[in-house]
Write a structure and sequence with these properties.
This protein is α+β, with helices and mostly antiparallel strands. It has three helices and six strands, in the order αααββββββ. The strands form two sheets. The protein has a three-stranded antiparallel β-sheet with strand order 1-4-5. It has a three-stranded mixed β-sheet with strand order 2-6-3, with no helix packed on it. The protein is rod-shaped, with a radius of gyration of 49 Å.
């Protein structure tokens, strides 16, 4: 009787799952199709894959934190260097200003000697060298007769009224002022004259 007469239209399928080939005696290689199907069916969301994903997320988080820490340290170091440079310049300026302040009375004596015609001979050479050295350090004198009075750089020791001026004017320089750049070491001491106020008309 045929298989069609028995009611079955397919022949039975026989699978040989033996690991050793009975003819050659060698181990059989796994069927790639079966292995792939088995892997796809079994993997899914296994604990090992979830652990790997969590580890990757944790590493990415740690990398971001370390990068932020490095950037913060770099910014702090840059600010530190700028602050140190500013402090170094400030300390240098204060040291130079301190030395030059001590030399101002000497420069005043040289100026008075020059005004009286006593700056001659070897003393003249020494004074010129001293003034040149202080000039290289940035010291400059200021204050001339006839300039407008500025309380920020002038110190008024005498005050008067005059019809020859239209604003508060330095009419006499009693002692020159000195500064380094924009920093005033000593204000110029001056006599100031202001314009006369017109008398009120009598009614």
């Amino acid at each position: 009787m045929s298989t069609r007469e028995n009611g079955s239209g397919e022949e039975p399928v026989i699978r040989d799952n033996r690991k050793i080939d009975p003819e050659t005696g060698r181990p059989r290689e796994a069927d790639p199709a079966e292995a792939t199907g088995q892997d796809v069916g079994e993997q899914g969301d296994t604990p090992s894959s979830l652990t790997s994903d969590l580890a990757s997320i944790e590493l990415a988080t740690q990398l971001a934190e370390r990068t932020a820490d490095l950037q913060r340290l770099q910014a702090e170091y840059s600010n530190y260097r700028k602050r140190v440079e500013r402090d170094r310049v400030a300390v240098k300026e204060q040291a130079v200003a301190g030395v030059l302040s001590e030399l101002l009375p000497v420069l005043d004596d040289i100026g008075r000697a020059r005004d009286h015609g006593e700056l001659t001979g070897g003393f003249a050479k020494v004074s010129e060298s001293l003034e040149a050295a202080t000039g290289k350090l940035g010291l400059s004198s200021y204050g001339t007769k006839g300039e407008a009075f500025d309380p920020m750089v002038h110190e008024a020791l005498m005050h008067s009224y005059s019809s020859e001026v239209t604003e508060a004017t330095c009419v006499e320089i009693l002692q020159p002022g000195y500064r380094i750049g924009e920093r005033v070491l000593r204000p110029a001491r001056v006599a100031v004259a202001e314009p006369e106020t017109p008398a009120a008309d009598d009614n």
